[in-house]
Design a protein that fits this description.
The chain is an alpha/beta fold. It is about 35% helix and about 20% strand. A six-stranded mixed sheet has the order 1-5-6-4-2-3, sandwiched between helices. The two termini are about 25 Å apart.
Length: about 180
């Protein structure tokens, strides 16, 4: 199941929280921890969505007491060179963790600025023809630019305002969702 959210709408953070909850409720496995795996590089504007969201999540969530963990930040990004190692580490440290992978993506022009939330693994690096292991039980992507030719250049020339706007909306949606867990 794949959901698209237009991040330009004023209610988009609430919609992200609602749809994330829907995906989590449909997850067939048992879990006792939430693990956000925020993928990307802080060295490429279009690819920094994941690390920027991870950075913001650490600022907004009390990850010490609520069973919520964040991997991949601006200071410590998870990218192509360390993704396999970090993924193995998460499986060892969080055997009952529900992993939610977060990454930037490229898409159609009409979907620029949209957020996708879906069940199943994320295939990081697919837009730039990288063969990386699939990660996550659920995934969230932000469409930062248009797919087509020269994807690596496209990511490097992505507008920072697009990335920040998407990151702010996705972060607020995740925070809204985790706050609803705390109230239970």
């Amino acid at each position: 199941m794949v959901f698209y959210v237009n991040s330009q709408k004023s209610s988009s953070a609430e919609e992200i929280a609602f749809l994330l909850n829907k995906c989590i409720l449909q997850y067939p496995g048992r879990w006792s921890e939430l693990v956000f795996l925020c993928i990307g590089s802080d060295r490429v504007t279009g690819d920094c969505l994941g690390p920027y969201i991870g950075h913001q999540l650490l600022e907004h969530l009390n990850t010490d007491t609520h069973g919520v963990y964040v991997y991949g930040t601006l200071k410590s990004p998870v990218h192509a060179l360390n993704l396999s190692r970090i993924s193995r580490q998460i499986k060892i440290l969080h055997p009952e963790g529900l992993v939610i992978a977060v990454d930037a993506s490229l898409g159609q022009k009409k979907h620029l600025g949209y957020v996708t939330i879906a069940d199943g693994a994320l295939y990081p690096g697919a837009a730039v023809q990288k063969e990386l292991p699939p990660v996550g039980d659920i995934h969230i992507t932000g469409i930062v630019n248009i797919a087509g030719v020269l994807e690596q250049l496209t990511l490097q020339t992505t507008r920072l305002s697009t990335v920040i706007s998407l990151a702010d909306t996705i972060t607020q949606g995740i925070v809204n969702y985790t706050n609803s867990l705390i109230c239970l």
